[in-house]
Amino acid sequence: xxxxxxxxxxxxxxGLPRLLPPPQEKRARQGLEQHLARHGRLPYRDRAGTLIRDxxxxxxxxxxxxxxxxxxxxxxxxxxxDRYRRTxxxxxxxxxxxxxxxxxxxxxxxxxxxxxDGLQLAAEAVGADTAILYTHANxxxxxxxxxxxxxxxxxxxxxxxxxxxxxxxxxxxLAGQETALLSHLSGRAAVPTFMPPRITERGLGNAPTLxxxxxxxxxxALIARRGPRWFxxxxxxxxxxxxxxxxxxxxxxxxxxxxxxxxxxxxxxGELRQDGAVLIGGYHGTWVTAGQAQQLTMDNASLAKxxxxxxxxxxxxxPSDRCGIVETARVVRYLALESxxxxxxxxxxxxxxxxxxxxxxxxxxRKGTLEDVDRWSDQVAGRGACHHPDGTTRFVASALRTFAAxxxxxxxxxxxxxxxxxxxxxxxxxxxxxxxxx
Length: 438
Ligand SMILES: Cc1cc2nc3c(=O)[nH]c(=O)nc-3n(C[C@H](O)[C@H](O)[C@H](O)COP(=O)(O)O)c2cc1C
Ligand code: SF4
Fold this sequence. Notes:
Blueprint: E1 3-4, H1 9-13, H2 32-39, H3 50-58, H4 70-84, E2 89-94, H5 103-110, H6 112-126, E3 130-135, H7 143-156, E4 164-168, H8 178-185, E5 209-213, H9 214-226, H10 228-231, E6 242-248, E7 254-260, H11 265-269, E8 277-280, E9 286-289, H12 290-295, H13 300-303, E10 314-317, H14 324-338, H15 344-361, H16 369-380, H17 388-402, H18 404-411
Parallel strand pairs: 1-7, 2-3, 2-5, 3-4, 6-10
Antiparallel strand pairs: 6-7, 8-9, 8-10
The structure holds flavin mononucleotide and iron/sulfur cluster.
Iron/sulfur cluster binds at residues 174, 191-192, 339-343, 345-346, 384-386, 388-389.
C-alpha cells in the first residue's frame, strides 16, 4: 500500500486532508458509515444548473492532467443532451495510465465513496442515465473487489440514482486518454481516435459523454456539500483548492500528499542538492533544475516559468547516483513502444527520438544527433491525433536542457551515475531487456 504523508498542523488549520481520510483514522479506508459520518449524505440538487454554477464559482479544474475548467465540460454535455435529445453518459477516469502516478488508485482505495458521490452528482448535473467507473481492478490490493462492494452497498441503501458499472482499464500508457477510453468501452482497442466530434457532443454510443478524472469527481462531491467558498479557502486565486500529488523522493517509493495548489515545490521535494533535478508532471512532464525548483510553486501559473505543468501531480526527485539522461532514455523508449502507431509522429519520429536518446545515454552519439532530436521534435509538434508525441517531446527537450552538462559528459564517453539501477518506474511489459539496450 502506498504511503500517505502525515498532515502537518498547518494542513489541519486549513482543513486538509479533504479527500483522504483524516490522520487520526490512521489512513483507514473509508467505509460507507465513516464516509457518511464525515461528509454527510449525498446532496442531490434536483434543480437544473445549480451544481454547474457552484463548480464554476469554485474554479474547479480537472485533476487528470489537463486542468480544464470542469463547469465548461458539464455545461457542454448538458447543452449537447438538449440539442441532440440524447441522454448522456458519465465516466470516472481512474485509469491512471501514467506509471509514476499512484494518487488515483490510492484515492479509490481509501475514499471510494467520494468518487462514487461525484459520479452520481455529475450524472445528475448533466442528466445522464449511464455511469461508469473505469479503473484497474487489480492495481492495488484488489481495489476492484472493494469498489464492487462499495457499489453494492450504495445500491442496497438506495444512495445511487444511476447504476454504476465497473470497467477494467488496460495497463497501457494511452488507455486513460479519453478517446482511447471510449474506444475500449465500445469494444475496440484502447487507442486514441481522431476528433471531431468532441466526446462531449458524441461519445459513448454516440451520446454526449462526460469524462472526468476520479480525483476531480471527489472534489466535485465536496464542493456540492460545502460550497465554492470552502473550496477556495486553500489554493491560489487562479487555481483554487487542493490536489493529490504522487511524490517520489530518493528512495523512489510513491507517497501521496494532499496539498493546496500553490505550495512551494520544495515542500514536496524536501531540500535539494545544488546540482539536483526534479521531474514535474510525469512522463509528459518537465525536468527542472534544483535552482529552478527553488523558485517554483505547485500551480500552472508558476510552473509555466519553467515550461512545466502540474499535470497529474507527479513530483520526482532524481537521486544523485542516477543519470537523468539514462533515466529519460529508458522512459522515452517505453513511451515510443506505448504509442498507438497510427499517426506519422508516433510511427516515424518517436522511435527515432528514442533511439537517439539511447545513443546519447550510451555515450555513442555522433555529431548532429542533438540537432536531429530537435528537428524531429519540431516536426511532430501538434501533429498527432492525441498529445502523446507533444508530451513526449516536451519531456525530452526538458531533459536535454536540464542535463546539458551530463550530455557533454556522455559525449566524452563518461557518465556521472554511480548506479545503473533503473529508478523511474517503467512497467514490466515494455521494460524487457532494460539492461542490454544502452
Ligand atoms: C496520453 C494520455 C493519457 C491520459 N491518461 C489519463 C489517465 O490515466 N487518467 C485521467 O484521468 N486522464 C488521463 N488523460 C486525460 C484524459 O484524456 C481526460 O482529459 C481526463 O480524463 C479528463 O478528466 P479531468 O478533466 O477531470 O482531468 C490522458 C491524456 C493523454 C493525452
Ligand atoms: S499521436 Fe500517437 S499515440 Fe496519439 S493517436 Fe496518433 S499514433 Fe496514437
